Amino acid sequence: MARKESLFDVLKRKPWWLSLLISISIASALQAFLPLAFALFAALPFLVIAIYVAWRQRGIPGEAKTAQVLDLLKTLGREEFEAVVEDAFSRDGYAVSKHEGAAADLEIRKGGRTSLVLLRRWKTAQNGIGQLRELHDAVTTAGASGGVFIATGEISDTARQFAGTHAIEIGEDAGLAKLLARSLKQRGK
To answer: What global pTM score does this model have?
Structure first.
């Protein structure tokens, strides 16, 4: 049986200002019927969600910046793309090395965990499950904790489902732009 989502689950995925707007609306509406303290207390959960979501969304680039970074990534050569990703993971505290094998490009280590990274930057209409299966096999063979699939193209739904059930993280869109933006800026891109 599928789990029903609460209003709070939905709001955690929306822009932070939406929860703030709901909080202000509730406080304003209830103030007409209740003392101010009670009206503010009723609006408090939505204010807390707004603060939590704003904290989680800090540093995530907007749609325009994300599109700009992804377009720039598609113009990079394979070696330069790999160097940018390598630099970004190093900035995040990972020990990064080249992976020996065709199913992954990099090996990243942090906190006793090792993950294999597969990079796909070319302009494909859609990245399918085949590449993720190869990455999963490489992760299993290497005894790694998981895999990371970084792609600038679209990911198919079956590939997403496969990744979700096989400890493979997908780096794309705003998350990918956030990861790589500093490294690209440092390289003058």
So the answer is: 0.66
